[in-house]
Amino acid sequence: MSTSPAPASTPFMLIFRNTGAENYRHLSASQQQELVGRWNAWFENLVNQGKATIGQPLEDATRIVAGPGGARIVDGPFPETKEAVGGFVTLQVSGLAEATAIAQRHPGLDYGMLIEVREMTPHCHLGVNTKSVPATA
């Protein structure tokens, strides 16, 4: 039985931008289906390895709430779809290099998709916790 500690992992989020249907309209129905299969295989492989913890596409419709008291409300979608967030995946990986390597294997990159790789902070800077945090010595 090994007594070495488990390798540390760090939470990262992959944020998908420019995922609109216009990127895939030039593909035939069978090519689109093949891409969906490769996309799902990419994600399922990460889940099976225990690296992907959450993944979800987002609807195009959006609402922006801003200003004091949230008085300013603007509904979208907005015309600049390249900046729109189309979905996300959270990862537990060894670091930025592994998160980047995972992002580089995403099949949507060949069709204009952009992936932002962000490390998640271990704690909220406002002191709010939504789940228990193991005590540290």
Automatic annotation (TrEMBL):
InterPro entries to which the protein is assigned, alphabetical: Dimeric_a/b-barrel (IPR011008), YCII (IPR005545)
Highest taxon in the source lineage: Bacteria
Pfam hit, one: YCII
Domain (YCII-related) ranges: 25-115
Annotated family: Belongs to the YciI family.
Full protein name: YCII-related domain-containing protein
